[in-house]
Amino acid sequence: MMSVVPVQLCLAGKEVTDVRVRPGGQWVSGVVSEPGLHGAVSRLCMWSVAHHDVVVDLLVDPLPMAGRGLSGGVHCWDLEGRRVFITTAKEGIVEVALVDDVPARQHSLAFDPTRNWSTPAIDYTQSSVYAIADWCEMWKCTLDGGEAQLVYRTDGFAIDATAGADGMCVTWNRPHMPWTQSTIYPEPAITEVSMQQPRFSTHGNSFGFINDVSGVANVHISADRVVAHDVMIDDECEHGGSTWGPGQRTWCFNSDGTKVAYTRNEKGFGALWVYDRFTTQRTKVDKGIFGCVSWENDTLAALRTGARTPTQVVAYDMSPQKFGERTVVVQPGAEHWLTPEIEEELVEPSLHEAANGDVVVPYRLYRAKKPNWGVIVWVHGGPVDQWQVTFRPKFSYWLSRGWSIVVVDHRGTTGHGRSFQQQLEGHWGIHDAEDTVAVVRQVQRAFGFRSERTVLMGSSAGGLSVLNALGTSRTLAAGAVVSFPVVDLVDLMQGADPFETHYMPRLIGARDMEDPLLRERSPLSRAHVIAGTPLLVFHGDNDTLVPLSHSEQLRDVVNAAGGAVRLEVMHGEGHGFRDPLHIIREYSMTEEFLDELMG
């Protein structure tokens, strides 16, 4: 019999984010989050590198903030590893002092506890901590008991505080997004250049950042006493992803600034490399998708994941004798996902390309080991984002049921350089849908998946792409499943989301609210064609980014055109589902829908 992944394994379990090496290199710290009775419960822990079953709780009360995915921005260490500074939800930023590797005392710094703080950073004189408040202000607090002082404020956005001689941060202004044009305060912006991840070495003697001035997001290192001229690690692969939040760390210096560890995005796959600033030699350390890269003394640590690798905390011995020797420090999800029966269902994807006229559209194919039904073509959200080859429980769930999966990197997807990413601007709703159709047809021709065995899936912006792709042909697929899809671009242009609404005119190409493009690019204008494909739609009634009215309009208009739209409303949910019962319901109803489609 076919082994089938239980739906419970797709629920949020224990997760580790914001990994850092404690100065000295003997310990690795990180935020552990797990579901609780009243929401997620988090704590800051550290693990011994040599004896990783030795765990010390650094802060449990107040609850530390949690990082996001492979990012961080929650805590930082002083230069000796004697104090750690942590952002919390109720008390602002808390300092914890250690004695003999055990927390001895804690107190709250003078940051306003009512504000949302991120990315604490201590300066190399160890006299002040900098942090970002509410994505728009950078504050400084001296550690001798002084009051917090405002360093920088913007009417746009500010994230990722960095402390050198004085405070620095990444900042950008509307109508830009951080991936279209951003800078590192206090430097002025460079037109159409994106900056991210400013970083000093431990003792402040070396400085670098990532920008895409070459067309690819690569690490740049400023001249210093180590190397007397500026250096760009010139690469065809990107070293950082799109900035959707604070705390991304895909590169770092070692302690003395003589080496740099950096990640490579290899068309959705990934690897960790080291660059020697003296010799300019580049050395591959390991493969996988990495985040929260941190290096102190001979210990290089990171979060690591892959198609068959649930996210884990790893440490590499970077001494000359053991260079790159890997130790798995923590495997928070291993007890669920690495049993022999389930592990055999895990699949590594293969990389392919589809031609859409002169455009080459990359995609990754996960072939089910025991094929049963057909293929799911999945379109990521964003739309400026990418689903790299990380561990995705929902993929394993459908692969275990015999469905192969295709992940589309349509124009606008990150990881393929600035030009490919920006080709979507002014064309959202067209290029993404056309590229999706090209991939679907290529997969059907090359791998024998018939249209009646093809299903499209997407959420949010991915839902818009899926629906507009279906609007090109009644025979493209047997059905589609979309969650909180963008359906009405007129409504989206009038949204109140502070992060993205201002970007909509540039992304869509609409001049104003009366521009006919808004209705032309909305799936509602293709209802008569979409009606030829059965749809299952999920939407939360508390979604403020894409309101429930989008899916209600879709249901009403497509059904009026003779279609079959089944709308399932998740009560109390927003833009993405959190309640375990709702998630189980989503999987169960989707499986029932697919079974009906396949007869």
TrEMBL record:
Domain Peptidase S9 prolyl oligopeptidase catalytic positions: 391-598
Transmembrane regions: none
Signal peptide feature range: none
GO biological process: one example: proteolysis
UniProt-recorded Gene Ontology molecular function terms: serine-type peptidase activity
Name this protein carries in UniProt: Unannotated protein
Species of provenance: freshwater metagenome
Origin organism lineage: unclassified sequences, metagenomes, ecological metagenomes
